[in-house]
Amino acid sequence: MTGISGEAGRPAANGPVVPQDITRVLRRIIRRARAVIVVKGCCAVAAAALGSMLAAMAVDAGVTLFASWPRWVLSLSALA
Questions:
Q1: What does the domain layout of the chain look like in residue ranges?
Q2: pLDDT number for residue 71
């Protein structure tokens, strides 16, 4: 079984030496993939927050709430 070395130019435990150019490109791809995962997660959180706020707004628009505390409870529960 062969593995990729931890540092450029050094052989893995039982594997070949990986050239520095390939290691550099692989690390750049890994860094870019991690950045995409973080951005994707942030977008998912923002979409969920927006969806819950829109649902709370729809309930508020559909039901007549005379007191202000039910609106606060509805808004805060959407953000929780």
A1: 20-79
A2: 86
